[in-house]
Write a structure and sequence with these properties.
alpha/beta; Ubiquitin-like (UB roll); 3 domains; five-stranded parallel β-sheet; globular
Length: 569
């Protein structure tokens, strides 16, 4: 029997007359009937699409699920396309699956290894008997298009953890088997396409035919899998060349070889076999070595009088600045800090964003004229009258603090606009040294699945906000979108302007953060809009063996977030 709007105020798809019917409520308030046990793709196929973009996954009671989900009770559903952040995650996860499946068929003895994101794409190493070439990539792309044209399905099943470990060992995926050894669950989700199998890491498209847009481009010794543009999903993105960021990732990869840990499974083994203390000491020593190298570079140029440090939220800028100052002192320099917070314009002169709210993250929320005047005075050996801003009143105080620097002193400026030359337009280029810092996550889950840098920063911020600011995880996640938009406008466009890039991530931090962060994310109720992002973080955390924070040295950047730092903030 088929019901229509004339038959009922509720919309129905075709159902068995004797079947139990569930009520599905969409975001617009409309209600639809779906037979219990049927997949939600049946409802998705009945609905009009926005801008001709297919639905590729769904938010079901605030949990992000594949379209093969079959609800057992009434629920709220929002169907998502590529323009949704969760839709893009689903598309990328599915696209990487097709890539791995194609390479498995073409190069049985090859090893594909995901490294990191680069622009709107993922960078891969491909270890074969011959180097990566455009001809090879064209061959792989043809195979991927063949899989997509055949609309090959993604099969899903659940098995016991023991069965899954045996399966991955038997099929030649020892790293996936190693990963599962720490997983505290009896059941494991498995996804397959042809002979390629992987763990179920989240929502995927129903079949390969949904993946119409992608590209492969050679880059360095590997290649980049390019995804559709955010605003125009019918067009694949172009490579965004970021040589300094890329070099930082390459350096981090080499560190991974030194540490002999490149994925979560191997880290867990270090924790279990008692070798984690030495591992942490080595990881922190590598950080110290890099900071010392930066200090040496600054000290070797007598013309440098200003060091500018910028990076996105929760990168560890404050601790890095303090550690850099220590190393500069060792080199005979006396660093002094100059805070941008004192140079905010009075509230009535603060620019507003597109929503009419004060845009405190805009560079034009700062008194650039006064700031540059004071920089010039300081570099000329004069006394500058540094203002003091009252954030409660939104106005500058009447009193000022006189400041003067000597020839052996160097000014340290930390802030989101540090790499934007507009901030220090009065200062000659050879007088400035610019540092970009970010937590560029070096650890991967396994060869095919990465940990997003943004997730590392979000979990850091959540822990810090809870400990020092009294914010819940729900509060932090709800603000995260706004934070990210500010970074996209004010930080990321300038990251390649840096003289050097510092990666503040440490390979053991998710293990440290797990016992602290897990209860914070678990507190987010299912009815919260933040629930889906919390679930994503919790899923990644579950793969890590927990680690006692007492193992973290007091000077570590990680201490900025978990507490116990030897630095004063």
């Amino acid at each position: 029997m088929r019901f229509t709007m004339k038959d009922s105020p509720e919309k129905m798809i075709e159902n068995d007359e004797n079947a139990e019917l569930l009520t599905i409520t969409l975001p617009d308030g409309s209600k639809h009937k779906l037979e219990k046990g049927k997949q939600i793709i049946e409802l998705a196929n009945q609905l009009p699409t926005a801008e001709g973009l297919p639905f590729i996954c769904a938010r079901v009671n605030n949990d992000i699920l594949s379209l093969d989900f079959a609800p057992e009770m009434d629920c709220n559903i929002e169907f998502l396309n590529y323009k949704s952040p969760h839709g893009r995650d689903c598309y990328r996860r599915s696209m990487t699956f097709v890539l791995a499946r194609a390479i498995m068929e073409l190069y049985r003895n090859a090893r594909l290894a995901i490294d990191h994101s680069i622009g709107n794409g993922y960078y891969y190493d491909l270890f074969t008997d011959v180097p990566v070439s455009e001809q090879m990539l064209a061959y792989i792309k043809t195979k991927m298009l063949e899989i997509i044209d055949k609309n090959e399905p993604f099969g899903k099943k659940t098995m016991t953890r023991t069965e899954a470990i045996a399966l991955f060992n038997r099929e030649g995926y020892p790293e996936k088997a190693r990963l599962l050894k720490n997983l505290n669950t009896d059941k494991v989700g498995i996804v397959s396409c042809w002979k390629y199998i992987d763990l179920d890491f989240g929502a995927m498209v129903p079949s390969a035919g949904y993946l119409k847009t992608f590209d492969l481009k050679q880059y360095a010794q590997g290649f980049v899998l390019l995804f559709p543009e955010h605003e125009d999903p019918t067009t694949s993105a172009q490579i965004r060349r970021q040589p300094k960021i890329f070099q930082a990732y390459r350096e981090t990869k080499n560190w991974g070889k030194i540490l002999e840990v490149n994925n979560v499974g191997r880290l867990n083994e270090k924790i279990k076999d008692g070798g984690i203390s030495d591992f942490i000491k080595t990881a922190e020593a590598l950080h110290s070595k890099k900071i010392q190298a930066i200090a040496d570079e600054i000290s070797s140029h007598s013309s440098i009088r200003i060091v500018l440090i910028a990076g996105p939220s929760s990168s560890g800028k404050t601790t890095f600045s303090k550690r850099l100052c220590t190393h500069l002192k060792v080199n005979g320099l006396r660093p002094v800090a100059l805070s941008l917070d004192n140079y905010f314009l009075d509230r009535q002169h603060t620019p507003r964003d597109e929503h009419g709210d004060y845009d405190f993250e805009s560079i034009y929320a700062l008194d650039l004229e006064l700031f540059n005047q004071h920089l010039k005075e300081l570099l000329d050996g004069k006394v500058a009258q540094i203002p003091e801003f009252d954030f409660h009143t939104g106005h500058r105080k009447d009193k000022t603090d006189p400041m003067r620097i000597n020839e052996d002193q160097i000014i340290i400026i930390e802030g989101i606009h540090g790499l934007n030359d507009e901030l220090t337009r009065s200062v000659p280029a050879d007088c400035k040294y610019k540092i970009y810092i970010s937590a560029l996550t070096q650890l991967v889950i396994d060869d095919y699945n990465r940990i997003a840098t943004t997730d590392t920063r979000l979990i850091r911020r959540t822990v810090r906000d809870s400990k020092y600011r009294g914010y819940s995880a729900e509060d932090t996640i709800s603000r995260w979108g706004s934070v990210r938009r500010g970074e996209e406008r004010n930080i990321f466009p300038f990251q390649e302007c840096a003289n050097t890039v510092f990666n503040s991530a440490v390979p053991y931090e998710w293990a440290i953060l797990r016992p602290i962060a897990e209860p914070l994310f678990l507190d987010i109720p299912p009815e919260s809009p933040c629930y889906s992002q919390a679930r994503q973080i919790l899923r990644t955390l579950s793969f890590f063996a927990p680690l006692d924070p007492k193992e973290v040295p007091p000077t570590s950047i990680l201490r900025e977030f978990i507490g116990g730092s030897s630095f004063q903030y």
